Amino acid sequence: MELPGKGLVKGLAVTLGTLGRRTGTQQYPDVEPDLPPRSRGVIALIEENCTVCMLCARECPDWCIYIDSHKEEVVVPGAARARQRNVLDRFAIDFSLCMYCGICIEVCPFDALHWSPEFEYAEHDIRDLLHEKERLEEWVATVPAPPAHDPRGEPAKEQTAAAKRSGRGAA
């Protein structure tokens, strides 16, 4: 049988326990917060790496990525016919819709999208949270370098494949 008011006593015990502790308030605008390494802030775009494959826009659960492109013919010397390549005209992310899941970054096969730790991009008007490719490229400079490979771990797949190719070429 439970005593009446047992929940109230537990709640007051928690309150009294925290009453004597020092607060952990950080004075944010004056003191920069210590962010964990590789923290998620805003998505940065490296336009040269984007091949307009549209995987990021297709996989986005919020449909907040907008991509426009056109095809250009590229004449390759010695080729029988000209080739076509996609040229990126518009790449925009609506951060008012984005839920920062990171699926777009994970599915990008050419490493065109990266997490930047930049988190101070609030706007007064919600319509200004639609960031075009020029604004997304500004954050590339703040993207941290990837962590160093563990020397005791397995080599990367790319290194293994390159070693196999160079071994066959030498034989």
UniProtKB/TrEMBL annotation:
Keyword Iron among UniProt keywords: yes
Residues annotated to bind [4Fe-4S] cluster 1: C50, C53, C56, C108
Catalytic reaction annotation: a quinone + NADH + 5 H(+)(in) = a quinol + NAD(+) + 4 H(+)(out)
Keyword match Plastid: no
Subcellular location(s) of the protein: Cell membrane
Annotated cofactor note: Binds 2 [4Fe-4S] clusters per subunit.
Binding site for [4Fe-4S] cluster 2: C60, C98, C101, C104
Keyword set, alphabetical order: 4Fe-4S, Cell membrane, Iron, Iron-sulfur, Membrane, Metal-binding, NAD, Quinone, Repeat, Translocase, Ubiquinone
Enzyme Commission (EC) number: 7.1.1.-
PROSITE patterns membership: 4FE4S_FER_1, 4FE4S_FER_2
GO terms of molecular function: 4 iron, 4 sulfur cluster binding; iron ion binding; NADH dehydrogenase (quinone) (non-electrogenic) activity; quinone binding
Domain 4Fe-4S ferredoxin-type: 41-70, 89-118
Cofactor(s) needed for function: [4Fe-4S] cluster
Chain spans, region Disordered: 144-171
Record's GO cellular component terms: plasma membrane
Membrane topology: Peripheral membrane protein
Function comment: NDH-1 shuttles electrons from NADH, via FMN and iron-sulfur (Fe-S) centers, to quinones in the respiratory chain. The immediate electron acceptor for the enzyme in this species is believed to be ubiquinone. Couples the redox reaction to proton translocation (for every two electrons transferred, four hydrogen ions are translocated across the cytoplasmic membrane), and thus conserves the redox energy in a proton gradient.
Family: Belongs to the complex I 23 kDa subunit family.
Protein name: NADH-quinone oxidoreductase subunit I
Species, as recorded: Dactylosporangium aurantiacum
